[in-house]
Design brief:
single chain, alpha/beta, Rossmann fold, 5 strands
């Protein structure tokens, strides 16, 4: 009698961190990217000044599970929902989108209604971002 052990390996959670628009400050995005990597996730960082289209194309090509968008420029009400809209148009609405940066509390609920799954503002801590992603993908941890 031959027995076979089937081992399944969980694929690491893949997260893209993007900086949409003209915002030139990326310290927070880099801090989050490193924290996610240190927590065992694979991280793709797009760099500065990316369009929503570029971010979505990279996310699809890299087969990511989530997109984190860091924005400090004040264009969050336009750029974040645009990423969700493009994902839907490409049949990739299963990719979880979350945002962070300088985003007023008054805008948070509207962004959540438009498909952004979470907003994490400065001072929210890297652990909050990690816990959010663990909550979205409990079977991956």
């Amino acid at each position: 009698m031959t027995t076979s052990l089937t081992m399944t390996t969980k694929r690491k959670l893949r997260v893209l961190i993007g900086k949409p628009g003209l915002d030139g400050h990326d310290r927070g995005a880099k801090v989050i990217a490193r924290a996610l990597r240190d927590a065992g996730m694979e991280v793709v960082y797009t760099g500065l000044h990316r369009s929503p289209e570029e971010i979505v194309e990279t996310a699809i090509q890299e087969d990511v599970d989530a997109i984190g968008l860091s924005i400090l420029s004040g264009a969050h009400m336009t750029l974040l929902p645009k990423v969700v809209e493009i994902l839907r148009s490409k049949g990739a609405e299963d990719i979880v989108v979350f945002g962070g940066g300088v985003i007023p509390d008054d805008d948070r609920n509207e962004l959540l209604k438009k498909g952004i799954k979470e907003i994490i503002v400065p001072g929210g801590g890297t652990q909050r971002t990690i816990e959010f992603l663990k909550g979205q993908f409990p079977d991956r941890f």
